[in-house]
């Protein structure tokens, strides 16, 4: 998708990008300083409504809080989704502070400490166990607290998902218990007093191919059908993962949600209804819910020409928005969509490179991009910044101030 296509999703007022119905320059004045992240609650609601309309009514929607843990965003989504998934004790407390029932919170991720597991068991959330060690820690916590822990088994499937930005299943993984090991682990802890409510399979993230997502979901249901034979009780929790991607670079096309939903309807009405009549199917989404609702706004502080190349130097950079810079050079870097937000109606007139304020050539936000003639104090806006932005970036690098975050 082009920057112009992303801009259409937000709209303009008087030639400026608007966020929550507020012109960008007015919002910047309200925030008081740049850089900042802004998240548009209207676009959040649109995405949830679109998912609700497309997905089967039986499917519950879980927000993977790791994508954007800003308290205002989490609080807003807690009233719109069915569940919240957390990955640390801090995220657990933030989720419970929203008032969502503890039974609707799941705690996933490898490396949970004994203390974190005790907190989760005491709170009554679903602990998604990722190893035999975690099973043992859950059993110990339940015995010490006099409670019956509720767990779901995170399974590392025996298949991989092609086309995912990150593969999180198939082959050796730090995530989940290998599918072939699950029966033995369930036998080992069958008498431990743990209530195993079901399974979670998450094979990959950031996938834009509906057919691949559908195939992964079908194979997930088949796998869980085999593993469920080793449970003493019916499956009540069936987390199919998510992995729905969003378009980051110009060549990316949006995920065909209708095609994903069509496959999921067939799966829910067929194999899931037949094999797991007591189960609640769950789709867990982070990036797909919040990624396109957010922007990163940074101000031009210098404009310079070096041997024929024009640079816009901004007051932000990779310490706030690492992904847009190329993740420390570990990936093939492609430009994220960006515009001059206060000149949204102006035609492109020059080729520039947008760099941040850090002492490294890796601090690159836009390389040879076509923009209107931007001047000092103009506002550069990077789209697709609602997920894995601030908290996924090296904010302490060089000691610059942390950016503000606003939900409008």
UniProtKB/TrEMBL annotation:
It comes from the Bacteria. Transmembrane segments: none annotated. The keyword Hydrolase does not apply. Gene3D superfamilies: Alanine racemase, Lyase, Ornithine Decarboxylase, Chain A, domain 1. The active site is at 359 (proton donor). Keywords: Pyridoxal phosphate. This is Pyridoxal-dependent decarboxylase, exosortase A system-associated.
């Amino acid at each position: 998708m082009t920057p112009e296509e992303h801009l259409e999703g937000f709209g303009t007022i008087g030639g400026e990008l608007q966020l929550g119905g507020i012109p960008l320059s007015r919002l910047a004045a309200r925030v008081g300083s740049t850089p900042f992240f802004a998240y548009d609650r209207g676009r959040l609601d649109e995405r949830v409504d679109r998912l609700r309309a497309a997905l089967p009514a039986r499917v519950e929607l879980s927000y993977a809080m790791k994508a954007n843990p800003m308290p205002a965003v989490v609080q807003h989504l807690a009233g719109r989704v069915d569940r919240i998934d957390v990955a640390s004790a801090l995220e657990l407390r933030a989720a419970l502070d929203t008032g969502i029932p503890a039974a609707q919170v799941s705690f996933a991720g490898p490396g949970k400490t004994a203390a974190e597991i005790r907190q989760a068991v005491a709170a009554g959330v679903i602990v998604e166990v990722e190893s035999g060690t975690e099973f043992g820690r859950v059993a110990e916590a339940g015995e010490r607290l006099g409670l019956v822990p509720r767990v779901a088994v995170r399974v590392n499937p025996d298949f991989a998902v092609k086309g995912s930005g990150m593969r999180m299943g198939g082959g050796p993984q730090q995530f989940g218990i290998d599918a072939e090991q699950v029966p033995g682990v369930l036998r080992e802890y069958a008498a431990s007093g743990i209530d195993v409510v079901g399974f979670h399979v998450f094979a990959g993230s950031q996938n834009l191919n509906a057919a691949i997502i559908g195939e992964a979901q079908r194979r997930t249901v088949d796998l869980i059908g085999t593993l469920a034979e080793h449970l003493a009780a019916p499956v009540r929790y069936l987390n199919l993962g998510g992995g729905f991607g969003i378009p980051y670079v110009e060549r990316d096309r949006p995920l065909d949600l209708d095609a994903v939903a069509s496959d999921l309807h067939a799966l829910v009405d067929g194999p899931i209804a037949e094999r797991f009549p007591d189960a609640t199917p769950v789709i867990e989404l982070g990036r797909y819910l919040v990624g396109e609702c957010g922007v990163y706004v940074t101000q031009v502080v210098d404009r310079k020409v070096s041997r024929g190349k024009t640079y816009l130097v901004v007051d932000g950079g990779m310490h706030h928005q690492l992904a847009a810079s190329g993740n420390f050079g570990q990936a093939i870097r492609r430009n994220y969509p960006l515009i001059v937000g206060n000149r949204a109606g102006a035609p492109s007139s020059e080729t520039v490179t947008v760099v941040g304020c850090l002492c490294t050539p890796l601090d690159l936000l836009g390389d040879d991009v076509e923009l209107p003639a931007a001047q000092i104090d103009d506002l550069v806006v990077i789209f697709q910044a609602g997920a894995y932005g601030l908290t996924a970036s090296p904010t302490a690098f060089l000691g610059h101030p942390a950016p503000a975050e606003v939900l409008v």
